[in-house]
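Recall the central idea of this unit: under ordinary conditions, the amino acid sequence of a chain determines the structure it adopts. In this exercise we apply that idea directly, starting from the sequence alone.
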Amino acid sequence: MGKRCMLALLAIGLACATVTGKTVYVVGKAENDLVLWLSSEGFQVEFFRDTQSAMEEIPAASTLLVLADAYPIEKVPVPGDFYRVMDEKNIRYYIEFPQRVPGLIGEGKVLHNRLERAVVAGNHFGTKLPALRILGINDCHLIAAEASDPLLVLAKVAGLDTAPYGLSGLPVHPLLVKKDAGYIALTKLSDFAKGRYGPQAHWQEVWAHLIGQLTGTWDLTFAGWPRYLKPAFGEGEAVTLADKENSVDRGVAWFAKGKFYIHEDWKERWLRYQADGTNPVGPPVPRDFPVGDGSEGLLEGHSSTIYYDGSQQYRYWIRADVQGEGAFALAAAGRLLDEPDHFSTAENLVDFIFRENLRNGPRNQPDSAAFGLIGWSHTHPRVYYGDDNARAVLGILGAMAFMERDTWNQEMTEAILANFRTSGENGFRSNRIENRDLQRQGWKHYWNRDFINPAPHFESWMWALYLWLYDKTGYEPLLEKAKTAIKITMDAYPEDWLWTNGIQQERARMILPLAWLVRIEDRPEHRAWLDRVVSKLLENQVESGAIREELGGNDKGRYGRTKSNEAYGLHEAPLIFENGDPIADMLYTSNFAFFSLNEAAHATGNPRYQEAVGRLSDFLTRIQVKSERFADLDGAWFRAFDYNRWEYWASNADVGWGAWGTLSGWTQSWIVATQVLVLTDQSYWDLTGDSKIHRHMEGRLELMLEDYK
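Accordingly, the structure predicted from this sequence is:
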């Protein structure tokens, strides 16, 4: 008697402690994310071969999950009497992507969506997930239907976490509906981790609600919630110097893991997807394809389009800046890690620039107005962005210093002077110059322009190069033109600055020329300018080291807040919707701030700057992507990071370089190379201090600026 009582009490205790003993029946695969999570919560999962078997064999008053294993190729087969049997046997069920959806009006046509996101349609989920809350669902294939009172709908909406413009006037499609004792999803929701749905907490609320309604179990821990891609470290985890060295190693290994080095065997694939460069995207390079050695160039990275299986679209575009920046990262890593193979690849990337159309044609003809300029891209070699030229040159100069080479000093002199002579009398060059205009008007037209463009993102790093080359050569016009442009720009700060995707990126870019101006003329005014910009930037640095994005004045922004639901995804755009959104940007701000702040810290010795660099170094180490499932993403940095959630999430409104985009040049290379500078306690200025570029200055001045020597 006593023994029986003890056993009974033990059984009751176990049942209270966990949900063990609650059985969920499944038509689907054991590796489905929903099944894995339920198993981790203690549910007993039993499988049926197909829906017909489940109908016949499932005990009354049970819970059944019918999952879309063949999504999006095939809908889930549904016997004609499925819903009647569910009702008769009192089955609480969830079915997704079904062939038949009774009571819903529609033809059953499958819609394929890219920019649309899930939106909470009412108050079904309570206060934790209120109406108009946004959930990411990638590459959604959806059965078209109409339904009253859906729980979730699919729509193209602006906003970060909430749809601020509402749903009125939009095409809206039911995504999740309730029918009697069951729930019907008109797409696949159950592989939320493989499909990289976000934010994680929003989807956890959805599934907590559904499983609670279906099983009566509400005490769910989410401890075993599947994740196939995550930051390398948690927010509070300590990172060591060894961790940072490993981050550098993983950062350059990513170029090869992602197969971003074009190989001769698949050049046709690159050219096919690159096409004319207006939309150079395509599926990932197959895993069994060979990897190049840099001699055929380095691809740009990923676009922000995620496919239904979690894989991510590539940008099959060759840009000049990416080659120079990639060489910088490789050379830096090669020096730190003592990996000479990285030097060889870096040299190949730089040689590629001068062998291909990026520097040939009119750019390589001494009597051409475009001589010395570096073309924007393989598809647009006749477009000249000063900022892209600056980053390519800085990358190559840095690579040479790390490799202790002088190979391309003449070409670098030509590139800096080519940009210099197409800058106006105030030092501004404009965002870009077209070859046809340059050839028609001649470079002296630009040299003599009275033109002002206080847009640091487009202008300021070329001023930094003028200061750098002045330091090596003593050519006074470089210094004077840079100082003129910097003073005009600082006099215009902040009200008249022309910002691109946010004011923070403009501050991040302006720090570099200000730091190097202090190197050359260490005056109180110059230090004050630098501190004014740095201090404002660092007002947005949070405890984790992340730098929060910020929009500038509405009348000065090139790409500001998305102004309507219809405009979402049509233009370049910031990652935030309003100031205060807890988002860091590794494409436009944090990457460049990391490099520039390190230069400012070394130029001034300011401990506050040095502390900010250290915190940013820690942050970037922590948020580097870690994934065994997605090898082409392992070791990358995405553009966006939500530092409150500690998750890759933001508004994905940007048409080309959205929240989950990677960029082998702008993002990856500046983070990796700067991390090496930080680990070795040096600045770029000191690294390149022994450059022999002055040996080429006299000859290039005679060739390119004879009347202005």
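Residues 554 and 569 are 19 Å apart (CA to CA).
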